[in-house]
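Structure record:
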Amino acid sequence: MARRKKVYEGKGKVLYEGPEPGTFVQYFKDDATAFNAEKHDVIEGKGVLNNRLSEFFMSGLNAIGVPTHFIKRINMREQLIRQVEIIPLEVVVRNVAAGSFSKRLGIDEGEPLPRPIVEFYYKDDALGDPLVTEEHILAFGWAGQQDLDDMVALALRVNDFLSGALLGVGIRLIDFKIEIGRIWEGDYMRLVVADEISPDSCRLWDIKTGKRLDKDVFRRDLGDLADAYTEVARRLGVLPQTSAPLGKPTLIN
């Protein structure tokens, strides 16, 4: 597919104009970032893995009736997606205490939560993506009450699907982050899961050993990020068979 005009570039992906109105081409970069891009490496092949993994999860969600922006994978690094109006919120579902949640509430990492907890964070890098309440969301008009109810329901369905798919290959879903967008079909609006679902946006621990298989490997210098992502792809059966071996990190000054 011919490359078209760049629409947006983020820390991990680039969006280009799609071949038809209402579509984008989403390109997965090899960049690895943490702490609002204060830490930044390039991991050769990371974008290839995240493309395949996000395809696997998004296709699975579409198949069970959870709507997403994903249409199809185009090649090793690109996928065709629907254009959506992104709601400016990150939706986080937590099954086990970890990361900022543990620090904020003083709960030991690895402590199972009594039920999945859904949190909202306002998407603003300059502010550090602060945690917000439903009252904030309604007051500032980021989403309405029905949208909020639908977002929680979508997030919990995604949690059920991801937890089951990963449990089957010996991986525990600790938490994950998704974005949700609006698609307009005439006068009808519906919410869909957007952005990506990959080890960049999930915490994944090996069930037996507790080994991290997600971006915490990079955040906390726990080993080789390429190895961790490759292991997740291998277990799920989506490891590219013809790709070159993943390289070691290249430090960006």
In short: Confidence is low (pLDDT under 50) at residues 243-253. Residues 145-167 form the longest helix (23 residues). The domain at 85-206 is CATH 3.30.470.20 (D-amino Acid Aminotransferase; Chain A, domain 1). The chain has six helices and 14 strands.
